[in-house]
Design brief:
Layout (H helix, E strand, L loop, with lengths): L1 H18 L5 H30 L6 H22 L9 H13 L37 H14 L4 H24 L8 H4 L2 H8 L9 H12 L3 H14 L7 H4 L5 H19 L11 H9 L6 H9 L2 H22 L3 H14 L10 H4 L8 H9 L5 H4 L7 H27 L1
Helix pairs in contact: 1-2, 1-3, 3-6, 4-5, 5-6, 5-10, 6-9, 9-10, 10-12, 14-15, 15-16, 18-20
């Protein structure tokens, strides 16, 4: 069964590769939306199979090893198949490569925007012409800059450098997830829940988004915390945070069981490493956080509760305040009521998405790596329904479609109600 579903999924990714075009951006978008949806069919069948397999009595060690090996091999094969593809619904990786190029030539991407005349000798038709927001300096953290520089050093102006780095990160992530699953007394073949999920495949190996570089360190921080190796956890947590700031929401749970002295040490170590990473980029021209601050304050896309709050209050800042307040209140409830720190982190990242002002598909990668430990049906439905947000860049003008947002989140909240009912019944038993 697993072999059949793996072959079906691989056939779809080969089809996407054959249809891929470096020039027909709109055609790539159409293929992305269609094949992303189709890829969920073999994924869901395989997902159902491994959950059913867990309850079967024929689980010999050899059979489990064969199953896990097949899952890992297909997971890596899917990623390798998509390595040669070009952008589909996002062009962010041009910015990544540009900043890697700038850094490799000895310039500071936090001080100079792509339009800076002193960088004109670096401009080219392959990267610079496609870079967006050319008047803005970088909004990516120093860890991200290291990834960009490594990618440019490996692949130059092609996207292969980025994707090779990502493939290495995913291979590490597979190993860490297997170890964490075993630590939690869960079947290691639950790796399939992440490894075969279409979302990271399309967002990290087609659109080449940065988040995957942070995720192995994020999960490793959780693993080290579960093993009471807190100083190691603090170090790898800071690495994850320096690549993508989304890691910050896990911090309260990583230090929850520590003494006050240990809490202070963990935070101090992570903060010190973060500050040290920024020091080489400090400059007199601009703040290193200038563009990131503008992004967090002004950008919005595909929110759920946030969109509803804007509709009610007719004011975006008030809506942001309401969503932030609700997130903090519910986060505190999870922090004090949650008995399982890993599931608490899972629920918290789900709240980040529900109350977020900006919810791009690649942000869900942070939830995807936690999904084998939570398995909410609402989250699975979100991984599928987020595809509706891709109709926004598909149009000639960047306009969010109300029907797409309503359908996307109506699906999620209906399944969330179902999850709540199942949890209620289980507790009553």
């Amino acid at each position: 069964m697993i072999l059949l579903q793996g072959l079906l999924a691989e056939g779809l990714y080969i089809a996407y590769l054959l249809l891929d075009s470096s020039f027909a951006f709109k055609s790539n978008m159409q293929n992305h939306i269609t094949l992303y949806a189709l890829a969920f069919l073999p994924y869901l069948v395989a997902y159902h199979y491994i959950r059913k397999y867990r309850k079967s009595a024929n689980q010999t060690h050899e059979a489990r090893s064969i199953l896990l090996t097949g899952i890992v091999v297909f997971g890596l094969l899917f990623r390798i198949t998509l390595l040669p593809t070009h952008r589909s619904t996002s062009d962010d990786y041009y910015r990544y490569l540009w900043e890697g190029k700038v850094l490799m030539h000895g310039h500071n991407p936090y001080a100079m925007s792509p339009n800076d005349t002193s960088l004109s000798y670096l401009r080219d038709s392959t990267i610079w012409n496609h870079v967006t927001f050319k008047n803005y300096t970088s909004n990516y953290q120093p860890g991200g800059q290291v990834v960009f520089a490594m990618a440019y050093a490996i692949g130059g102006e092609s996207m292969y450098g980025l994707k090779i780095v990502y493939l290495l990160c995913d291979a590490l992530l597979f190993l860490v997830l297997i170890r964490l699953l075993r630590k939690r007394n869960l079947p290691d073949y639950y790796l399939l829940i992440y490894a075969w999920l279409p979302l990271p495949l399309f967002e990290y190996y087609v659109n080449a988004h940065l988040d995957i570089a942070a995720l192995p360190f994020f999960v490793l921080a959780i693993l080290f915390a579960a093993e009471n190796k807190y100083w190691r956890s603090a170090v790898v947590f800071s690495v994850s945070l320096l690549i993508k700031s989304y890691a910050i929401f896990a911090l309260p749970f990583l230090i929850k069981r520590l003494s006050l002295k240990q809490k202070f040490g963990y935070v101090a170590l992570a903060a010190t490493l973060a500050v040290l990473a920024y020091l080489p980029f400090l400059n007199e021209q601009r703040s290193v956080l200038e563009t990131l601050t503008k992004y967090l304050r002004n950008w919005e896309f595909n929110g759920s509760v946030y969109k509803l709050a804007v509709l009610v209050f007719q004011d975006s800042m008030r809506a942001r305040l309401v969503c932030t307040s609700l997130f903090i209140v519910l986060g505190i409830v999870i922090f004090f009521k949650g008995k399982d720190f890993l599931k608490s982190i899972y629920w918290t990242y789900f709240l980040v998405i529900i109350f977020g002002t900006t919810v791009y598909p690649w942000y869900l990668g942070w939830l995807a790596v936690l999904h084998p430990f939570g398995e909410l049906t609402a989250v699975t439905s979100l991984f599928f329904a987020i595809n509706l947000s891709n109709f926004t860049p598909f149009g000639d003008v960047w306009v969010e479609h109300e029907w797409a947002i309503i359908l996307e989140y109506l699906t999620v909240f209906c399944f969330l109600a179902y999850d709540g009912w199942q949890i209620y019944k289980k507790r009553n038993k």
